[in-house]
Write a structure and sequence with these properties.
Order of helices and strands: HHHHHHHHH
Distance between the termini: 32 Å
Shape: globular
Structural class: mainly alpha
Number of strands: 0
Radius of gyration: 20 Å
Number of helices: 9
Oligomer: single chain
Largest sheet: none
Length: 179
Amino acid sequence: KKTAAALAADDEFAQFRDMPGILTRVAMNNPATPKGALRKVQRAIAELAAGDEFAQFRGMPGIFMRTAFSNPADPRGALRKVQRAIADLAADNEFAEFRDMPSIFMHAAVHNPADAKEALRKVQTTIAALAADAEFAQLRNMPAIFMRVAMHNPADPKEALRRIMASQSSGYPGKQHWA
């Protein structure tokens, strides 16, 4: 804990201050050289963001950090795998319904690197179940909400929709509020 706090206080690592989990993991996994490990992550982030190879991800700088931190041995290889997965998902007719929402492919590839296709199949099943559920009939005119909840709340999408509906003081449909 002391090491993570010291890293958070160090101006050299200011970009990680809002991510105490990263600092704690670095301190635990690299007790002898936590600063060196963070410097390596910083260099990898900068290299990934600077090249044209990964330009498609520049609007999402968090992906560079996630990749550099989670794959310190080969962040470029890991990001190339994400690129291939996105391209494969977009080309697969099984997921044609998502082609007008390419961010869903990126989310599946980044958050489910072992099996992005299976993750999207679960999203499809969840969307269909939510749309068919009478409890959520009033949301059917906003199908994107089902997709959003299926992607970001896979453990309990129904409860997420209930929270969204409960948060609408002016009645639903109305202001958009995402879980």
